Amino acid sequence: MTEQSPLVEHFFRHEYGRLVAVLVRTLGARHLELAEDSVQEAMRRALRSWGLGRVPDQPAAWLLQVARRLAVDQLRRARLHHRFLAGQPPGAGDEIAEAEPVQLAGEIGDEPLRLLFLCCHPEIPAESGVALALKTVAGFGTREIATALLVPETTVQKRIERARVKLRELALELEPLHHPWMKRRLDAVRAAIYLLFNEGYLSARAESPIRQDLCDEALRLARLLSRHLVGNDPETHAMAALICFHAARAAARVDSAGALILLGEQDRSAWNWELVREGMDWMARSAVGDALSRYHLEAAIAWEHCRATSTEATDWEQIVQLYEHLASQVGGPAIELNRAVAESRCRGPQAALQRLLAVPAKSLPEPWPLWHAVLGQLHWQAGKRAAAIRHFEQALDVSESPAEKQIISSRLAILRGTASPSWLDGSD
Amino acid sequence: MAKFLFIYRDPVEPRPQPSPEEMQQFLALWGQWFEKFPGAVVDGGDALQPTGRVVKPGGIVSDGPYVEAKEMLGGYSVIEAPDYDRAVAIARACPIAMVGGAVEIREFAGFA
Asked: Does residue B37 sit at the A interface (CB-CB below 8 Å)?
């Protein structure tokens, strides 16, 4: 038996995206599905051959070679079939891509990024584009995308199909990234990466390792974009910084509800300080020019949390001001909620409560357990026990996350007097 | 010690496509499977291309695998074990079952 060389983590997933992108460049975006099927089949074959103990020295090149052959064979068969039906003899022009040199993994250029820009075409609805990007660029399966985005698998399939139909209708192709219009698509590309990250990081409704994978993928794409000429600008750098700062704290986080309620109880030594440093580098590079994007503001907020040695030592006043900037740029209940939490830390629970109670209920996404949990917490701090219990009960009612439910239940137990608030005096 | 040929039979009917990540996990299981039985694997064997030729009496050659069952020959390994019981125990742990495949075990006659 030959030596089994271990594959790097997520090798198949990452190679999937790269290989699909490279094949699409040769075959044309109209053959996107053929490219995907060919890569899928190449991986299926690899599974069997490599499973028996023979991982080749250059596994990526192996996959590309097999996938390319499969795709070319398929195209040739289809063309011959077409000619046969049309009563034409086989002839010149059948040797599709025969002369194309086999490209090795190390030579793969900016194809994945080009595929991402294609998915973020303005004519493709954003959510369809993100689903297609997750499938093709990031190499996620439809079931994984469904789990990560918390939507049914059929919805994911429909979104991907919608994007594919648009690609075909408009005969869209991969385009070189130096075109001036690519810069204009950059906002959509950043929004897609940001959405990926948010879905992975901020949603509290499900626990699954796949959500961490989404964050990692967002970070990978943000780095890719930052390092390429087309995306190498302060706004992208700010986004990369933002993702690094959040990702650095991910390991220490109970879940996102815990992040807001229990920030003070987090073990700061468990943060990934290497990522914090990377975030600082990106942030330094983002501080050029006079654009102050939402990514700049959010990165600055995340940085305030990272640099503070404890909840008490956090500059909450600064955070409130950053949220005020952000609210004027972006707005929305999520920002109001975060701003209120920060406000409660430096100006007391009453000010924060006033702000949140002024938000019209209609504008809230439902169900949103975090909203009720924060209201419960603020009422508690303001000494309004009955209202606190009511809001925590509402939160418990709509929460689907076991970790979140546990936090809320423990709050309720203390409020109802059935448990002692040992954590209040800092004994744990 | 006897030698056994493990013949891997893949199901022919279509199954839901695994994601790349699932495929990598599956691949890791094959590695772990071999490692679980140190010394048993004489030859890891190889996978077989999905298509081939069939030569029939009279020299008639046809394309494609010789499909007689609902399974297709996917690959083989050579395994060493004291008896069939042990060989069966090894095959039971084979991850191919997770994707609906089967392992056929045949003892070498030892004539060669």
From this structure: no
